[in-house]
TrEMBL record:
Protein family according to the UniProt entry: Belongs to the monovalent cation:proton antiporter 1 (CPA1) transporter (TC 2.A.36) family.
GO cellular component: plasma membrane
Domain Cation/H+ exchanger transmembrane: 27-404
Domain Sodium/hydrogen exchanger regulatory region span(s) in chain numbering: 501-586
This protein's UniProt keywords: Antiport, Cell membrane, Coiled coil, Ion transport, Membrane, Sodium, Sodium transport, Transmembrane, Transmembrane helix, Transport
Coiled coil feature spans: 526-553
Domain of life: Eukaryota
GO biological process, alphabetically ordered: regulation of intracellular pH; sodium ion import across plasma membrane
GO MF: potassium:proton antiporter activity; sodium:proton antiporter activity
Positions of region (Disordered): 607-711
Membrane-crossing segments per the record: 7-23, 29-49, 61-78, 90-113, 125-146, 158-178, 190-220, 240-263, 284-306, 312-338, 350-369, 381-404
Name of this chain's protein: Sodium/hydrogen exchanger
Length: 711
């Protein structure tokens, strides 16, 4: 009979899926989860109409066989970067939001039971809090089924889906806590404190169990190079063992599965073959899809086959308070979260988060686990839970797609990120890490960099086999793409059209017998080649003329810059010396006497003002014609003071001042330095010493030119 039932369920699934995906008008309006529940209702009605007892979704079957594949698929392929970047927001929604929903809903339902009449008065506070903890948690199966169809953007998807994954620890703790408290005669403060601490034990204990099994799975995959067939088996086996071990000790099995999948994936994929990776990917997708389908069909069948107790007051109050608690929780928590987020959650995002809080089979299974002896209102709880599940899946699930289009919420980009985007993302990560180190602020970029360094230095060497543990990720990705492209070329028979990106080594490793053809280089004309060389020469010259970047560790003095500075200093010294020589050698002209004074002077001493016949004794300054601009070439050949011959100076001599003559070039056989000349006489040397020290001069005032005008 079991084989016949399995065949019937298989035929049902084989008939439902093609009909749903072939008709686009149905799939665009009705979500897949809604259709599967309708199919379950029809199947359950047919079975009951025939006179048979329809099967009911038992909690053991759900938690042991149907739920683990869905959670493993979600944890193994979890987008780790957006999940870790929004981990704080996800934890606040998952922990604080779930606690708020459970206590708010339980307290209000207790008030409704006290005011609702004789049929609800016997329901106590602990029973209502237990019901609130069951119905408050967002279901990951329902969220996956709806959000993957509407293709919502990555931020909203990871917020809602991450909340549905991590609130399992809160749900499990509250469920077992209130279930135990219901059996106590009196609840003390110590019991409440221990129950609060049990939350950390359940959540962190589940994560620890998952990490241990993930490390064991990664280490085992290091030694499977000779037995590639069983590589996918280790992934499934260790993941399922992590879930069972966590549930055995009443820890969070969902947290254990997520931790195991996240930890093992990067190391397992580095060790296993490409075929094993494909097997794991598609088997997990198929397994989770089958489990999800069976869960929703069994929900419909169990609705028809189960025992129900309908109470309008309790059911309508539950549905209304669920919506109110979700909206208020999202609004208050988002107001608090936006104070610390750089990318704020807009009102549209808040609406989608509040509207996407779907309930599913986890709430139904937890309600089904209640014992009749301690909870006589179990049928009424199950009826209210099924009503909330149907409302959230049908009403909210069917209307969320039109609302997303109406509000113009950003959709998910289906294209994969290019290598250029990956490189720039890593560059920004390193840049932000450096900025945090400089500022002294240890943010998540700093700790992420520390974790990556520890992983690269120690963990990869232990868990990854061969040289792949030392190979950079970009080079490993290039080798993988190169091998994939070479395999496709060989299989397609296009070996003659090999692009330049595929190396001949990869082709020889795949097909050693086939020799690659030589690459045909197109011939270029001489004019074209010369034009290309000219362009390259010009661009390379411009590249060399660019300024070098500054680095205080590798700063080296530029020899050209040093020579230029020395030349500027020499020019400045030459100008200063020229100014000094002009001050020393410039003789101010005497004031011109009036004709009366001139006649009086000549009349008093006619011999003193008689013009000389020779001018040999006049002071002479010779200038070297080789470089007349250089003040160093000035040579004082003969400069005698007026009146040295014993005669008074004549007026012509006073007006003429100093006479400058050109220095005659020396003969080829003489030495300008060691051959004495006419200027080397003792009187001329004394005259040079006198001119070199003209005595103190008054300092020029501020704003006055160094050389006075008229001189």
């Amino acid at each position: 009979r079991s084989a016949g039932r399995a065949g019937n369920w298989s035929l049902t699934l084989a008939g439902v899926f093609p009909c749903f995906h072939v008709i686009p008008s149905v799939s665009n309006i009705v979500p897949e989860s809604c259709l599967l529940i309708v199919v379950g209702l029809l199947v359950g009605g047919l079975i009951k109409g025939v006179g048979e007892k329809p099967p009911i979704l038992k909690s053991d079957i759900f938690f042991l066989f149907l739920l683990p594949p869905i959670i493993l698929d979600a944890g193994y392929f979890l987008p780790l970067r957006p999940f870790t970047e929004n981990l704080g927001t996800i934890l606040i929604f998952a922990v604080v939001g779930t606690l708020w929903n459970a206590f708010f809903l339980g307290g209000l339902m207790y008030a409704v039971c006290q005011l609702g009449g004789p049929g609800l008065n016997h329901i106590g506070l602990l029973a209502n809090l237990l019901f609130g903890s069951i119905i408050s948690a967002v279901d990951p199966v329902a969220v996956l089924a709806v959000f993957e169809e509407i293709h919502i953007n990555e931020l909203l998807h990871i917020l809602v889906f991450g909340e549905s994954l991590l609130n399992d620890a809160v749900t499990v703790v509250l469920y077992h806590l209130f279930e135990e408290f219901a059996n106590f005669e009196q609840v003390t403060i110590l019991d409440i404190i221990l129950g609060f601490l049990s939350f950390f034990v359940v959540s962190l204990g589940g994560v620890l169990v998952g990490v241990i099994y993930g490390v064991i799975a990664a280490f085992t995959s290091r030694f499977t190079s000779r037995i590639r067939v069983i590589e996918p088996l280790f992934v499934f086996l260790y993941s399922y063992m992590a879930y069972l071990s966590a549930e055995l000790f009443h820890l969070s099995g969902i947290m254990a599965l997520i931790a195991a999948g996240v930890v093992m994936r990067p190391y397992v994929e580095a060790n296993i073959s490409h075929k094993s990776h494909t097997t794991i990917k598609y088997f997990l997708k198929m397994w989770s899809s089958v489990s999800e389908t069976l869960i929703f069909i069994f929900l419909g069948v169990s609705t028809v086959a189960g025992h129900h107790y309908w109470n309008w007051t309790f059911v309508i109050s539950t549905l209304f308070f669920c919506l109110i608690a979700r909206v208020l929780g999202v609004l208050v928590l988002t107001w608090f979260i936006n104070k610390f987020r750089i990318v704020k959650l807009t009102p549209k995002d808040q609406f989608i988060i509040a509207y996407g809080g779907l309930r599913g089979a986890i709430a139904f299974s937890l309600g089904y686990l209640l014992d009749y002896e301690h909870f006589s209102m179990r049928d009424m709880f199950l009826t209210a839970i099924i009503t909330v599940i149907f409302f959230t899946v049908f009403v909210q699930g069917m209307t969320i797609r039109p609302l997303v289009d109406l509000l113009a919420v950003k959709k998910k980009q289906e294209t994969k990120r290019s290598i250029n985007e990956e490189i720039h993302t890593q560059f920004l990560d390193h840049l932000l890490t450096g900025i945090e180190d400089i500022c002294g602020h240890y943010g998540h970029h700093h700790w992420k960099d520390k974790l990556n360094r520890f992983n690269k230095k120690y963990v990869k060497k232990c868990l990854i086999a061969g040289e792949r543990s030392k190979e950079p990720q970009l080079i490993a990705f290039y080798h993988k793409m190169e091998m994939k492209q070479a395999i496709e070329l060989v299989e397609s028979g296009g070996i003659g059209k090999i692009p330049s990106a595929v190396s001949t080594v990869s082709i020889q490793n795949i097909n050693p017998q086939t020799l690659p053809l030589e690459r045909v280089i197109p011939a270029l004309s001489k004019d074209k080649e010369e034009e290309i060389r000219k362009i390259l020469r010009t661009n390379l010259q411009k590249t060399r003329q660019r300024l070098r970047s500054y680095n205080r560790h590798t700063l080296v003095a530029d020899p050209y810059e040093e020579a230029w500075n020395q030349m500027l200093l020499r020019r400045q010294k030459a100008r200063q010396l020229e100014q000094k020589m002009n001050n020393y050698l410039t003789v101010p002209a005497h004031r011109v006497d009036s004709p009366t004074m001139s006649r009086a002077r000549i009349g008093s001493d006619p011999l003193a003002y008689e013009p000389k016949e020779d001018s040999e004794n006049l002071p002479i300054i010779t200038i070297d014609p080789a470089s007349p601009q250089s003040p160093e070439s000035v040579d004082l050949m003969s400069e005698e003071p007026k009146g040295c011959s014993g005669l008074p100076p004549s007026p012509e001599e006073d007006e003429e001042g100093l006479v400058m003559r050109v220095k005659e070039p020396s003969s080829p056989g003489t030495d300008d330095v060691f051959t004495p000349g006419t200027s080397d006489s003792p009187s001329n040397q004394r005259m040079l010493r006198c001119l070199s020290d003209p005595g103190p001069r008054p300092e020029p005032e501020e704003g006055e030119p160094f050389i006075p005008k008229g001189q």
